[in-house]
Specification:
Blueprint lengths: L16 E2 L7 E4 L6 E3 L5 E5 L4 E4 L7 E4 L4 E3 L9 H24 L11 H25 L3 H14 L1
Antiparallel strand pairs: 1-2, 2-3, 3-4, 4-5, 5-6, 6-7
Helix pairs in contact: 1-2
Bound molecules: zinc ion.
């Protein structure tokens, strides 16, 4: 079976490209301006044809993408391999404290009916959520993924329906 791959093309200012932020809109050069804008999330970018780079102009610190001929690649991701060890560490960070707390709650159950009998279960759930939050935050930082922008774009899309 043959898969149809989009042919590669260099980045140039005359064309339109998928938006790397919302992954929904199209970015193209704005009339009378050097900058590029997304028609969906309204973010402003500056680009370099020589270096095939796109830089988000309205975010600090700015995020940069590199055009590989087919898609945008986060410049900070080039050359990094997201290995299984990271994945295992993330899973461990989420589930190890949760499991320990869950086990201790299981082996040393609170006195049934006592005022704090709900506490171990609630604490276990809280540990799970907080560690999940830490991992998600680390992943977002690693990819420099503009989470807020992404959710705002989605909110706009839902409201438009
Ligand atoms: Zn966009």
């Amino acid at each position: 079976m043959q898969t149809l791959k989009p042919s590669t093309r260099p980045f140039n200012h005359q064309d339109t490209y998928p938006c790397p932020v919302c992954r929904t809109g199209q970015i193209s050069t704005m009339p009378m301006m050097e900058a590029l804008g997304c028609n969906f999330c309204q973010h402003i970018f500056t680009a370099s044809e020589e270096r095939q780079l796109l830089k988000m102009a309205d975010r600090q610190p700015p995020v940069t993408w590199h055009w590989d001929g087919k898609k945008w690649i986060g410049a900070h991701l080039e050359g990094t391999e997201f290995g299984w060890s990271y994945f295992a560490a993330a899973i461990g960070l989420i589930f190890l404290p949760t499991t320990l707390l869950g086990l201790s709650a299981y082996y040393f159950p609170p006195v049934p009916g006592s005022r704090l009998s709900w506490f171990p279960a609630a604490w276990t759930g809280l540990a799970f959520l907080s560690h999940l939050g830490i991992v998600l935050w680390l992943v977002a930082e690693f990819y420099q993924f503009p989470v807020g922008t992404y959710f705002r774009a989605w909110a706009r899309r839902i409201r438009r329906r």
